[in-house]
């Protein structure tokens, strides 16, 4: 091979290496280190709101649970930084006994209009993770009927259901696994 061809081949090789290195460094710079990356936005949201992870569950008092989430881009129901929270307060339901099936009421306060909830059931050695169901703010549904509208008299509730809350009636044999927003309407 002549010297001229070696120089051309060497130059082509160097150009290829530079092109690859530039492309790879471009990929690295557009990854998590980018100022506007979703991962960076979520990390900032987690730090700002004192969460342990992007989806966090915290107890507030004896009967209140807060489901907090940081996501990016921010969905319509979230704060501008991607933070949203759903507050679930456990209150007595209209039934006086477990046999009524509605002795506990989960009152769900969220900034979205449509929620997905999932419960588990456990009693006398039986355990079952129930399929999730959707509930819309303003509805009163039952957990044992997988989110079917409750057909009882609202005046039987020991509280006034707010228009902006969803209520899930259940017994102590059910416990809430998760609740999350799915639509803002």
Topology:
Blueprint lengths: L2 H27 L8 H12 L5 E5 L4 E7 L12 E10 L11 E6 L4 E10 L2 E4 L3 E4 L3 E3 L5 E2 L15 E6 L3 E10 L2
Parallel strand pairs: 8-10
Antiparallel strand pairs: 1-2, 2-3, 3-4, 4-10, 5-6, 5-7, 5-11, 8-9
Describe the structure.
The chain is an alpha+beta fold. It has one domain. It is 21% helix and 36% strand. It has 2 helices and 11 strands; from the N terminus they run ααβββββββββββ. The protein has helices at 3-29, 38-49; strands at residues 55-59, 64-70, 83-92, 104-109, 114-123, 126-129, 133-136, 140-142, 148-149, 165-170, 174-183. The strands form 2 sheets. Strands 1-2-3-4-10-8-9 form a 7-stranded mixed β-sheet. Strands 5, 6, 7 and 11 form a 4-stranded antiparallel β-sheet that branches. Strand 8 (140-142) and strand 9 (148-149) form a beta hairpin. The radius of gyration is 26 Å and the shape is elongated.
């Amino acid at each position: 091979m002549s010297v001229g061809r070696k120089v051309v081949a060497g130059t082509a090789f160097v150009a290829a290496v530079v092109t690859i290195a530039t492309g790879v460094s471009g990929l690295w710079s557009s990854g998590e280190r980018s100022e506007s990356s979703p991962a960076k936005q979520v990390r900032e949201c987690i730090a700002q709101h004192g969460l342990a992870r992007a989806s966090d569950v915290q107890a507030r008092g004896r009967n209140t649970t807060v489901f907090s989430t940081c996501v990016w881009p921010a969905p319509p129901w979230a704060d501008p930084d991607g933070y949203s929270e759903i507050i679930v307060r456990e209150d007595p339901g209209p039934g006086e006994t477990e046999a009524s099936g509605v002795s506990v009421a989960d009152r769900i306060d969220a900034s979205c209009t449509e929620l997905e909830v999932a419960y588990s059931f456990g009693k006398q050695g039986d355990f079952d993770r129930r399929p999730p169901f959707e509930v819309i703010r303003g509805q009163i549904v039952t957990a044992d009927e997988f989110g079917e509208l409750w057909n009882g008299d609202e005046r039987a509730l020991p509280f006034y259901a707010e228009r902006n809350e969803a209520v899930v009636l259940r017994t102590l044999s059910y416990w809430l696994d998760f609740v999350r927003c799915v639509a803002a309407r």
